[in-house]
Amino acid sequence: MGISVTAATLVLVSAFLHAGWNLLGKSRTPSPAFFCIATLSVGLILFPFGFWVVSQAQALPRAFWLLLLSSGFFQMVYMGGLALAYQRANMGLVYPIARALPVLLVALAMALLGQALPWLAWLGMLLVTIGCLLVPLVYFRQWHWRAYWRADCAWALVAALGTVGYSLADKGALLHLEAALGGAVPPMAMAYCYLGMQFLACGLWLLLGCLGSTGRAQLVQSLGDLKLALVTGLMMGATYGLVLLAMAMTENVSYVVALRQLSIPLGVGLGIWLLKEPAYRPQLLGVGLVCAGLIAVSLR
């Protein structure tokens, strides 16, 4: 079964927002502490609403809380890896790798869990992955594993693995939350309730990682840029809230993860346009393959 028009529209809007907050973050060379402030701000803003929604639910099982903690941890891995990668490389290199690799990894994980995908969806995901691996190259003859054997690519890979982890954990947690609520609140309320809880968990994990002297110094610096951190956090919240809602409407989460990759050509284009990053032929071909793969994966 594919993805509904409503769910696809939500994911497309989130893709625009996702590219936007990455552009904001890259423009200031973010640190894990920056994302800690951003996520905690959104989590605290949504906390009263989340508390009210949870009060409408039956007792949540232990599995829900374990999945929530796992999701926050993997979200921390994603944001920490993204921040460290952006400190070392352009958005046009980091963003595609961090966004592309989860596509096939999530699909493989879902297949191992017994959810089959049609061949067209597999083809589309393969095109997305190949395209995004082309994007970081300056010349076609550079297509060799050594082109990716660098610290910036390694941190982007860490971010990609974090995306896989929180995507799978979130799907399981949402199923538990939906069952406990029993239709007591609309899907949008449930999605943003969970978003606030997840961002709080992620922010606390990031805060734990900032207890060292370097992390504390970065926290103080990020607090001085609180307005930008708050705007970034709100964009992040709106982005993933829409994705969570789409996940709740879709049986197979790999479709949602794949369609989110529209943010890749958007992010690369914004980096070229606003950050004056260079554009190379492999990069442009890669963006084209990503778009073709997105069309294939969204067909029923």
TrEMBL record:
<dbReference type="InterPro" id="IPR037185">
    <property type="entry name" value="EmrE-like"/>
</dbReference>
<feature type="transmembrane region" description="Helical">
    <location>
        <begin position="282"/>
        <end position="299"/>
    </location>
</feature>
<protein>
    <submittedName>
        <fullName>EamA family transporter</fullName>
    </submittedName>
</protein>
<feature type="transmembrane region" description="Helical">
    <location>
        <begin position="64"/>
        <end position="86"/>
    </location>
</feature>
<dbReference type="InterPro" id="IPR000620">
    <property type="entry name" value="EamA_dom"/>
</dbReference>
<dbReference type="Pfam" id="PF00892">
    <property type="entry name" value="EamA"/>
</dbReference>
<keyword id="KW-0812">Transmembrane</keyword>
<feature type="transmembrane region" description="Helical">
    <location>
        <begin position="119"/>
        <end position="140"/>
    </location>
</feature>
<feature type="transmembrane region" description="Helical">
    <location>
        <begin position="189"/>
        <end position="208"/>
    </location>
</feature>
<feature type="transmembrane region" description="Helical">
    <location>
        <begin position="93"/>
        <end position="113"/>
    </location>
</feature>
<feature type="transmembrane region" description="Helical">
    <location>
        <begin position="33"/>
        <end position="52"/>
    </location>
</feature>
<feature type="transmembrane region" description="Helical">
    <location>
        <begin position="228"/>
        <end position="249"/>
    </location>
</feature>
<keyword id="KW-1133">Transmembrane helix</keyword>
<keyword id="KW-0472">Membrane</keyword>
<feature type="domain" description="EamA">
    <location>
        <begin position="7"/>
        <end position="135"/>
    </location>
</feature>
<feature type="transmembrane region" description="Helical">
    <location>
        <begin position="6"/>
        <end position="24"/>
    </location>
</feature>
<feature type="transmembrane region" description="Helical">
    <location>
        <begin position="147"/>
        <end position="169"/>
    </location>
</feature>
